[in-house]
């Protein structure tokens, strides 16, 4: 694989990850210049009064009732929403075409990562990461939403999906995830890196091109904090790693195992929340994607694709045709600093689809109280996946 970084017209970074010739050998290079007439994203905005106002970072506000940091990113209200096929900003540039507002200047690519044009988290140069009190109120703390949001495109083909890429391309995607996790985690103030994919209109995807996202958070997310608390309690009582013990327990039970390879195990968790939910974990204790060996990464490329293909056969329509599963897939990795020794890498994939054309809505108790109620059982989910795997 070859990694090539460049800068877009407005100053955002773009990185090509190539696994095909003549690019992987360096005999040729993807287009590195961006011809769009975009101003630098940090250029001060001149108001109607002629006064230049500096660009401000999105801000984080702390919820006094829960302790959660909530990003306030009003600029995302103007982000691209379901554009027509000929205006897909994630598609490669059209050969010989005049300027268009696409994000990738090359006429083709293997895998590409670039900074999101409409980020929830953004580190503005010169911004000091300090907590201030709004209106002087101790219960209204605010700080800059310093961080980084990236988009990763899995294929140049807008009609493809992650499940349809080759094992070689999947390996390149894994290398890109590991690269970004390591680089973003080394940045000042970053506490956690989250690589994830949203697929399907039911999930709320606004661009149908096969892509995912990578968030570098300046704080630990509520889910990670909850998992760390459980891991600490388990370690204090047993001296063992919670993620390791969960995987071993699932292997001993064997009821919910849906896929096994030399280095990876996929299972429906004992207390699954969603109508379809699977976790994929390495057999070896590792904290994050950069810690995987070459053999584990190669095995993951085939295991991940097989898992996605199983999920895409979970539901069938009235005509007997399989229904592509809308899903969210996210890598739970060790935080940059806090709790690394207690964390264990695993992927979680889940869907809101509970039956063909029927969604699980997070109504009163789920949305209001975060008190989950499952509409099925983990054993039924696993049994269906085991059935389609035969």
From TrEMBL:
GO terms for molecular function: UDP-glucose:hexose-1-phosphate uridylyltransferase activity; zinc ion binding. GO terms for biological process: galactose catabolic process via UDP-galactose, Leloir pathway. Pathway: Carbohydrate metabolism; galactose metabolism. InterPro entries: GalP_UDPtransf1, GalP_UDPtransf1_His-AS, GalP_Utransf_C, GalP_Utransf_N, HIT-like_sf. It comes from the Bacteria. One of its GO terms (cellular component) is cytoplasm. It is an enzyme of class 2 (transferase). It catalyses: alpha-D-galactose 1-phosphate + UDP-alpha-D-glucose = alpha-D-glucose 1-phosphate + UDP-alpha-D-galactose. Residues 234-388 form the Galactose-1-phosphate uridyl transferase C-terminal domain. Its cofactor is Zn(2+). The active site is at 211 (tele-ump-histidine intermediate). Residues 58-219 form the Galactose-1-phosphate uridyl transferase N-terminal domain. Keywords: Carbohydrate metabolism, Galactose metabolism, Metal-binding, Nucleotidyltransferase, Transferase, Zinc. The keyword Transport does not apply. The keyword Aminoacyl-tRNA synthetase does not apply. Its EC number is 2.7.7.12. PANTHER family: GALACTOSE-1-PHOSPHATE URIDYLYLTRANSFERASE (PTHR11943). NCBIfam families: galT_1. Belongs to the galactose-1-phosphate uridylyltransferase type 1 family. This is Galactose-1-phosphate uridylyltransferase. It comes from Pengzhenrongella frigida.
